[in-house]
Amino acid sequence: MTTAVAPQVIDVRTLEGPNRCQIVLAAFDSLAPGESLVAVSDHVPRKLLRLLQTDHRGQFEWSPLEAGPERFRTQVTRRDAPLGTERGVSEALAWDHDRIDALEQRAFELFAAGDLVGAGAVWTEFSFGLRRHIRFEEEILFPAFEEKAGLSPVAGPTAVMRHEHREIEGIIEAIGRALAGEGAPLPLRSDLHRVLGQHNDKEERVLYPGTDQLLSAEERDAVVARIQAS
């Protein structure tokens, strides 16, 4: 059985001097594939992302965990890939599905163990990650697919996906209230698994591969880079 290694946390706010990003990059260089670090800052770490996209293109996953207003936390995970590897929509977004699903699982494990504070904290991270995933799909991925496929945003598969997104958002909001003591979360969790499971399956079987087929390798890589910056 493999034990997950907790991410190294680097609080950039405590560092002095002009080379704070270089300290984070040095820590990233020491990671093995699959390992992560979490950078904590008082602003969106755009410079760090630009440096990673330049110096470690294709070698990292970028996962914002919290976005202010006073604290920003971003998880950076090392990929097992050569420098310069071009990204694809299917592998990048399916990876994020798995990351988000793991947070949901952990939140309910803590809930079952009676750790309501811990469950609420992890659920907040899950909710943030899923809402961000929905947002970048609707703002970046869907328009790219619609343009290449010649589809309208009010018809076709992306229209269905947008409708399902609204349903998913309603369920996760209700579960958040239930975990805070305003109801029973387990029946709502069953609803979430039903709707989100079917939704993710359609995306991974149809939408993501279809987008990859419609876009060139350079276009796919550019979409993933825009998603990271979103």
Summarize the structure.
This protein is α+β, with helices and mostly antiparallel strands and 230 residues long. The protein contains 7 helices and 4 strands, in the order E-H-E-H-E-E-H-H-H-H-H.
Counted beta strands: 4
What percentage of residues falls in helices of 4 or more residues?
55-70%
Please state the overall shape, judged from the principal axes of the Cα atoms: globular
> Treating each run of at least 4 consecutive H or I residues as one helix, how many helices?
7
Backbone structural class: alpha+beta
Query: Could you say how many structural domains there are in total?
Result: 2
Q: What is the CA-atom radius of gyration, in angstroms?
A: 18 Å
What is the strand arrangement across the widest sheet? Answer: 1-2-4-3
Biggest β-sheet: count, sense, barrel? 4 strands, mixed
| Proportion in β-strands | 5-15%
Q: What is the typical, i.e. mean, pLDDT?
A: 95
- Give the terminus-to-terminus CA distance: 36 Å
What pattern of helices and strands is seen along the backbone?
EHEHEEHHHHH
Task: List segments where confidence is low: pLDDT < 50 over at least 5 consecutive residues.
Answer: none
Structure description:
There is one protein chain. This protein has about 230 residues and is α+β, with helices and mostly antiparallel strands. It has 2 domains: about 10-80, Translation Initiation Factor IF3 (2-Layer Sandwich), CATH 3.30.110; about 90-230. It is about 60% helix and about 10% strand. It is built from 7 helices and 4 strands; from the N terminus they run βαβαββααααα. The chain has a 4-stranded mixed beta sheet. Strand 1 (about 10), helix 1 and strand 2 form a beta-alpha-beta unit. The radius of gyration is 18 Å and the shape is globular.
